[in-house]
Amino acid sequence: MSNRRSTTPIAGQKPGTSGLRKKTRVFAEPGYLENFVQSIFDAIGGGAGKTFVLGGDGRYFADRAAQVILKMAAANGAARVIVGQGAVLSTPAASHLIRLNKTDGGFIMSASHNPGGPEEDFGLKFNAANGGPAPEALTAAMYDASTRIAEYRIVEAADVDLSTTAERDLAGMRVTVVDPVADYAALMETLFDFNALRALFKGGFRMRFDAMNAVTGPYAREILENRLGAAKGTVVHATPLPDFGGMHPDPNPVWAHELMEEMFGDTAPDFGAASDGDGDRNMVVGRGIYVSPSDSLAVLAANAHLAPGYKAGLKGIARSMPTSAAADRVAEKLGVAAYETPTGWKFFGNLLDAGRATICGEESFGTGSDHVREKDGLWAVLLWLNILAERKETVQEILNAHWREFGRNYYSRHDYEALPVDVAERIMAGLRDRLMALPGRVVQGMTVAAADDFAYDDPVDGSVSTGQGLRVGFTDGSRLVLRLSGTGTEGATLRLYLERYAAGTEGLDEDVQAALAPVIAAAEELAQIRGISGRDGPDVLT
Ligand code: VG1
Ligand code: CO
Predict the structure, then answer these.
(1) pLDDT in tens, 178-234
(2) Which of 285, 315, 316, 430 registers the highest number of CB atoms within 10 A of its CB?
(3) Across all residues in the chain, what is the average pLDDT?
């Protein structure tokens, strides 16, 4: 029987900030997943003779999607697919397997921090041979293919047993089912001083890692509890569940509130951390102190040399545009280059491949390095632990010292979720139209220094990405940025990013929202988010 099935294009298969994300029921519609997977094969020049990695965060529908992807890989002539047992792989672990096995790329089934379940979200993204998310040119080619598709290929075969590690065969294609954790854990052992970390825990150091019923549970248990000797029970919500147990696996103070309560309570351990659905994000909390992701990036960059994997120093530091400039100050001090890229990890790939940057980060709880080509939640936690072990100080002491040395970039993101698309676009258009006239104007006592719609010229391949966020900078270093989310599946989410710099040594201990009050007021004056949307305030504040 022929492997070819005729089909017609389905509208809207356009990958966003990180792959294609839709409601699960949309992905489950007949032909939806098949069309997109074939569009990926078409965009990469076919699958013949190639090797791929396959895995995901274990969310609802992933078990069925994995079988479809395997059967389509076989029909497209792939030689081999390396699959995480149970079709599970964290995003950084998938990136590592792509690189370790020198494969042609990988399929990651995840909608990351979006909730999972039949009524929630599913997603699929393709990573290239460098282990990183497909760059814009490739995602554009996928979308283009999806608008012209006429047939897809799939073999008729029984489902492949993915429940145990083994070599299997699917219509002549090798399927290698691997332990999702082993190679990743081995990589971590090469980067961090596991002896020092074992000594730290042996000395009574206590931590809580909230895996939020998502993919990092088995990784964190193996590394923190089994290899490093952290007390049993250090990892909570450690079993990945298809609906994340109803949790919203987004590691921020709002969704990881259980961890926040623990860390601000009387019996708080020394260190707390949480991760997202697919394991690439991290939130870090000290006893009684929350570490903003932008500060975390800066502290990690400033102290990375304390971990064995980075003792030679950093080649450069890259951050996404809306991320605070705290990391730039570290780069300046270290005498290395600082890069500012659009939102989304795909823009760091070229800098990492070219050896221009070692550490990268985003304000959205993402940090990583050149060890893989994705952000990596557990990596960030281990680097923090390595730094704590070496400096023998608390998180609070380390942050205080950092701010005294570099000054403090007060920072917050205000999200307005599920706005009607036309309302969100009206707000964006209103500010965009006023940008040109803003320089020199005084708003809330601050003078606008520059205002633009961010465009990125990739210094490695010369590609240009426009329309990446509206930014207004003030002469005192304050800044506001407005952009639309590219990961949501319902309406439009508007993100307002706010920043104010305090050089110190006075004024380093203010309440963040209070410190940002003039910038918040300036944003409302210039963009009228509340005015136009009729909302009282943001839904989520990080
Ligand atoms: C969000 C974050 C962005 C991150 C992306 C994927 O995108 O802002 O920094 O790279 O999610 O992260 P957006 O377009 O919604 O702002 V993940 O952990 O969802 O893969
Ligand atoms: Co994620």
Answers:
(1) 999 999 999 999 999 999 999 999 999 999 999 999 999 999 999 999 999 999 999
(2) 285
(3) 96
Whether the CB of 17 sits within 6 Å of ligand 1: yes
First to last CA, the chain: 54
Closest ligand 1 atom to 280 CA: 18
Report how far residue 252's alpha carbon sits from residue 283's, in angstroms, rounded to the nearest whole number: 6
Cα 406 to Cα 505: distance, rounded to the nearest angstrom: 10
Residue 372 CA to ligand 1 center (angstroms) comes to 18
User: Could you give the CA distance from residue 415 to residue 115 in angstroms, rounded to a whole number?
Assistant: 17
Residues contacting 344, CB < 8 A, separation 6+: 17, 18, 133, 320, 486
> Angle CA(84)–CA(193)–CA(215) in degrees, nearest 5?
25
Which of the four pLDDT bands, split at 50, 70 and 90, describes residue 1?
low
Asked if residue 95 lies in contact with residue 105, where contact means CB atoms within 8 angstroms, the answer is no
Q: What is the mean pLDDT of residues 18-44?
A: 96
Which pLDDT does position 507 carry in this prediction?
87
Q: Rounded to an integer, what distance in angstroms lies between the CA atom of residue 468 and that of residue 450?
A: 16
Q: How many helices (H) and strands (E) does the chain have?
A: 18, 27
CB 283 within 8 A of CB 383: no
Q: pTM of the full predicted structure?
A: 0.94
Find, among 152, 219, 116, 142, the residue nearest to 489 by Cα.
Answer: 116
Q: Are strands 456-457 and 106-109 parallel, antiparallel or unpaired?
A: unpaired
Q: Catalytic pick from 112, 294, 364, 485?
A: 112
CA angle 183, 185, 186 (to 5 degrees): 65
Quick check: 235 pLDDT over 60? yes
Mean pLDDT of 47-56: 98
pLDDT of residue 247: 86
The whole-number pLDDT of residue 381 equals: 98
What is the distance in A from the centroid of ligand 1 to the CA of 185? 25
Look at residue 374 in the predicted model and tell me its pLDDT.
Answer: 97
Q: b/e per residue, 105-121, with b = 16+ CB within 10 A?
A: bbbbbbbbbbbbbeebb
Tens digit of pLDDT for each residue in 102-124?
Answer: 999 999 999 999 999 999 999 99
Is 112 catalytic? The answer is yes
What is the distance in A from the centroid of ligand 2 to the CA of 298?
20
> Residue 114 CA: which ligand 1 atom is closest?
19
Answer whether 487 contacts ligand 1 (Cβ < 6 A): yes
Q: What is the DSSP letter of 224?
A: I
